[in-house]
Amino acid sequence: MARTAVITGASSGLGAEFARQLGARGADLVLVARDGVALDSVAASVRAEHGVSVEVLVADLLDAQGLAAVEERLAAGGIDVLVNNAGFGLDLGFEQNDVDAEVRHLRLHVEAAMRLMRAALPAMLARGSGRIINVASVAGFVPRGTYGAAKGWLISFSRWANVVYRPRGVTVTAVCPGFVHTSFHERLGLAPGEEGVAPGLWLDAAVVVREGLRDAARGRSVSIPSWRYKLLVAGSRLLTDAVVVRAAGRGR
Ligand SMILES: NC(=O)c1ccc[n+]([C@@H]2O[C@H](COP(=O)([O-])OP(=O)(O)OC[C@H]3O[C@@H](n4cnc5c(N)ncnc54)[C@H](OP(=O)(O)O)[C@@H]3O)[C@@H](O)[C@H]2O)c1
Question: From the CA of 19, how far away is ligand 1's center (Å)?
């Protein structure tokens, strides 16, 4: 499928799983995150298992130089797939969070993803082929604080961009998982079991990435992995905001 893929947030969780599954499909990889040791470990295991070339690009996407380094790598061309996956959650309510933490959260989910797409697109369009995957969330379909709002931006933009760029050979897909076992909740300071998520609502990263890659290959604008979450998103459209906010607010 892919020749060279750039994956942000590849040092753990969904990003590392994208690296494993794209590597298994024969793609060479450029892995981006801040933790160089963790990236090296993902890179070494993908190289050993799949024999593909893996480059590690240590960069903080919230730092102007780090973001510019990834933009330059994308603008130089030769990139077939961009996976905008890096992200994090905030642990308190909007009115309690440090406003600078909110700005970093918005910039990573929206500004960094937007700049990287803008950097990658010209070369992809000139070649007439490319695949962009934006890791959003089912939270982007429901009112769920600034996290849901930021993921909603990614979903809305991907839907527009896929209509406009797909006829020119470049697909744009928002992959929208529900709760997934990764480092995401641990980084929020939550121990296993403290997330307030019903056991049946957890998804495996491998399933999310497999379904996301399949939907991207089919040229879909939106991928919601698993029937459970497809039904929950469809059902949420029939309910009032007050009911959805209460239900969605249970999990962290
Ligand atoms: N887990 C879930 O339940 C869930 C559900 C829906 C959507 N998502 C989304 O899935 C994506 C991946 O999250 P995950 O669940 O796999 O969590 P994770 O295991 O915590 O991975 C987050 C990744 O983002 C990277 N990252 C964070 N800040 C960064 C920065 N400033 N610059 C560069 N990289 C940065 C981290 O790497 P470093 O720390 O090494 O920089 C890490 O590789 C996120 O966008 C998240 O919102 C997660």
Answer: 14
